[in-house]
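Our preliminary data section would be incomplete without showing what the modeling component actually yields. Below, a chain of 368 amino acids is followed by its predicted structure, encoded as tokens that our downstream tools consume directly.
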Amino acid sequence: MKPSLSIIFTFSLLPVFLFGQVSTSNTSIKIEATNMSSKSFTVDAVRSTIVIDKNIRSIFQDKKGNYWFGTNGAGVYRYDGKTLIQFLEKDGLYNNQVLSIQEDEVGNIWCGTGLFGVSKFDGKTFTTYTDKTHLILNNLAEEDLKIKPNDLWFYAGAGAFHYNYKSFSYLPLDKSDLKNTLSKNTAFQLSRFAVYSILNDKKGNVWFGTQAEGVCRYDGKNFTWFTEKGLKNSAVLGLYEDAKGNIWFGNNGDGLFCYDGKSLINFTEEKGLGNKEFKISGKSELGTLARIYAINEDDLGNLWIGTIDAGVWKYDGIKLINYTTKDGLTRNSINTIYKDKKGELWFGTDEEGVYKFNGNYFTRFIVN
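Predicted structure:
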């Protein structure tokens, strides 16, 4: 399982695969931001450094051009081209594991952290919105449930947190026992429905990759679940929509999937790049496309797929090229792939920091 959460949970494999649409009442719960943890500090007082932690989980470039690097346990770094600054729990960040980084319409930086935390940074102050000690749960009005392209979504234990600029809410994905779901406050309890990846598509839908229930598409009213062809029972860690509108799913064990709006295919199986041994013994294998953690696309339309054990794959629509330690990487473990405003690709690795690709080989990113 992807070590993106500070809780470990093991599920037995169930030989049940479903594919279809389920209509629900899209019940959610509101989270009031009153009495949330907040801490002010002067940015100049935060320690600056010249070294980025080696375990990178997320990368983001904000509107001002600053780069942000989220780590597995060393907080988040901001790099403005000259100075590298590190932010930690003692600066107001909810947790030092930073799994996602986003920016809202007014320039606030939002960090989705370990322990299902969500912290907003306004340039001076961190405010935490998901402290379970202070949560106030209410039924949401219909207006609160509508989703818009610029809304922010964050991982939760059995669903996702949703911020629509008016309210902060929790959307549980397990509708089989809704009353029990709400009463137990499962936002902070890791389950099969835990969200590990999120995608806002061009049609206004939100997609959620889960720990062991496959992929869910949410249109603001109904949920459509994709669980066949090996999607279910292994964590879906990567979601991406390419320039043609195809939706790609990256699964930790069964590989890469593609949904073109009509049919779902297991791309890895079709290319003969699976690793059946991993499901049996946990053994990794080079030359496979089975354990996928990240997906992105360059400006030329090439799809880039990051694995945790077999380096990076590039797919141009016809052929696949595999890049590994022989091409400049120090390790073959890729946690995240990010495309910046210039169209350059950044690769966050497990234990070896940040890399960039110059067209021929990978080079480590070093702050000068």
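The longest strand covers residues 56-61. Residues 2 and 42 are 35 Å apart (CA to CA). Preliminary results of this kind motivate Aim 1 of the renewal.
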